[in-house]
Amino acid sequence: LPLVESGGGLVEPGGSLTLSCTASELVIQYYTTTWFRQAPGKEREGVLGISAVGGRKIAADSVSGRFLISRHSATNTVLLEMNSLKPEDSAVYYCAVSLHNNPSFAISDYAYWGQGTQVTVSS
To answer: Residue 14 and residue 83: Cα distance in Å, rounded?
Structure first.
């Protein structure tokens, strides 16, 4: 798989978690990278994205101010730092890459996906 997510787990409400998206077959800094999530019974939704050129970011309103995205070329990784977690943040989180320079939450824009990592926010 070109992308592998890690870092998921169980965390209490108000806690923090950092997810990693590591690329093994591509140079991730050349791609727009976006984190998506999908909760049971719901559609996959965009969370945070970062463009290949310029590092332009987009964020869903539901996570703005709580989640951060960063790219680390040395480790070929994109991180999703999640703070002040809520039970409604529970979902399988996926990273995906696109050759479009402008990040979007349109699933059809993304050519490669990871297998996902489960995040559960519960007391």
So the answer is: 7
